[in-house]
Structure formats: structure tokens, C-alpha cells
Amino acid sequence: MHSMARERQVLDASSMLICSPVTELNAGCQKGSKVVSSIPDLEPDSIGTYNDTVLDALDGVLAKLVTKGIKAIISPHDGNAFGYDARMAHVLNYKSRSSGKAWSQWGEAILAFDIQNEPFQQAEDQASNNDPNDWLCGRAGNMNALINNSGVKLATGGVGGDQSHGNNLMPKAIECSAIDLISIHGYVGTANFWSSNLPSMESTAASNNKLLYVEEWGVTTSDTDNFDSQASAINGAGIPFVYWEFTPGPDGTQNCWTGCCTGYDGYEVGLNSTKGNVQQALQSAASRSAAQDWSGLID
């Protein structure tokens, strides 16, 4: 797990938000928003030596979310497998300054932890060969032991990255009893992909006692179908979604003040942008019945 949380708004019959730790966060201006403070990596100097600045900052975000009835999914970004179990134990056992609870027990604020953001994204052969070393379920088992039936869930985090590789529903992920949620990641360009594939994905997850949601999807201005069309297709399937990413400031299609707006990847949608109607997408999600029963998790 690396540095601070960039926040991704979510979606569904109620509200969630994903906090995705990244390699580091530097003060300045990113994606139309002003960043006040730089935040170092969790392990800035050596593996196993922790600097909790990132966790303290994220804890402050979680405390604010709770007051608004919003839950977070914590999605660790980690390209370094060395010390992973110890690193995640440190994160899960971190004691919130606001609630006094370990994060692993703070179900009022945290819906789930991803085992990792896009596991095997850099090792596609491991995913396409169904995780021969049982890495994913092994990590899930270790994390689940710390969660210990607190109500906080475990999600896959988008196995293999974009579903164009075909690994988000890897059999060992679907069959692992320690995993609760199946995360779909897709930068697919068309609304038809979602309307054609989500029903069968949901059925596969449900038959293995898993809930399914779209954890990452993004739209560029060159895609065949725009944000509104793809959001409508996902909502039409009754599947909760998280978008990469809604930005409170201007997105890359909007004017920005001098010296601002760096780091765009082309998928951003500003809350007041003509690239997509964010309010309509979220209101539509909230007005629909989900294909699966999420009660007790995001009521």
C-alpha cells in the first residue's frame, strides 16, 4: 500500500466512495483540484518501517464520510509483493483517531478492502492460469482473519485489470470463501458491453454467494458511447458502479485556471462538465432496484 487517498465518487442505491492509495501525493494542483499538503508513502524509506501520515490523513476523510452516511472501499495500490501480508496487517490494525476502532472493525465507515488494486495486472499469466500459487485467496484469508466477522468485506479489486483481458471473474477468485465482493474493471468504450455482459457476470457471482459491482470504468471523448450512455447501461443492469473518476474541479475538457490541471488521463468527468451528467447518473442509480441484495451494507 502506498500513499494517500485520491477519492473516487460512487454510486448506488445509497452512496459510497473509493479511496485509492497511490505512490505518493505531492502538494500543488492535480486534475483541477488544489492539493494542500504532500503525503509520503506508507513505507517511505524501507519495507516494514511505517510512516502513518497517509493513514492519518485518510482516517480524517473517513470520519467526514461517516457523518454523511457514505462508506469507503479502501483499494491498496502496491507493486511490491515483499512484506505484503505485514503491510496489510498494519493497515487493517490501524486504530482510527476519530472512532477509536481498528479499521478492520470500522464497518460504519468502511464497506470493504480490496485485496489489491488490479492484482496480477502486471502478471497476466498468473491470472489467465487461474492463480497457480493461490496468491489471491491466500491474501484474502490472512486479511479475513483480521477482519474477524466485523462486517467489513473483502473485494477482489479487479483481477487482471481491465476485463478486456477476461480475468475479473477468475475461477479461484469466484470460489474463494474469504472473498465477498467481485470487482469489475472495464474501459470498454460502448454501452453494449455493459448491457450484454453484466447480467451473466452477476449470475456467476451470485451463484457463488458473491456480490458484484463495477469498481472502475472510464470514458474518453473518443469512445463510441459517451458517459451518459454507458452509465445508463450499467444502471439498467441493476449493478452498483464506481467511476474513474469524478473530479470536483474541472476535467480535461474544461477551462482551468493558470498553472492548474495536471495529471489528467482522459477519463475524468468534472461534476459540472458537459462531458457527462454526473447528477443524473447517480440519481438514476439511486432510483433503481439492484440486481442483488446489498441491504445491510449500503443502506
Question: In a few lines, what is going on in this structure?
Answer:
The protein is of the alpha/beta class and 299 residues long. Helix content is 28%, strand content 17%. β5 (71-74), α2 and β6 form a beta-alpha-beta unit.
Give the key terms.
two-stranded antiparallel ribbon, 17% strand, disordered N terminus, 299 residues, 8 helices, six-stranded mixed beta sheet
Explain the overall architecture:
This protein has 299 residues and is α/β, with parallel strands linked by helices. Helix 6 runs parallel beside helix 7 (227-236). It has 8 helices and 12 strands. 28% of the residues lie in helices and 17% in strands. Residues 1-14 have low confidence and may be disordered. The relative contact order is 0.14. Strands 7-6-5-2-1-10 form a 6-stranded mixed sheet. A two-stranded antiparallel ribbon has the order 3-4.
Any chance you could write out the topology, listing elements then pairs?
Layout (H helix, E strand, L loop, with lengths): L4 E7 L4 E6 L6 E3 L2 E3 L17 H15 L3 E4 L9 H10 L16 E5 L9 H5 L6 H13 L5 E3 L15 H5 L5 E6 L4 H17 L3 E7 L9 H10 L4 E2 L3 E2 L21 E2 L7 H10 L12
Parallel strand pairs: 2-5, 5-6, 6-7, 8-9, 11-12
Antiparallel strand pairs: 1-2, 1-10, 3-4
Helix pairs in contact: 2-4, 6-7, 7-8
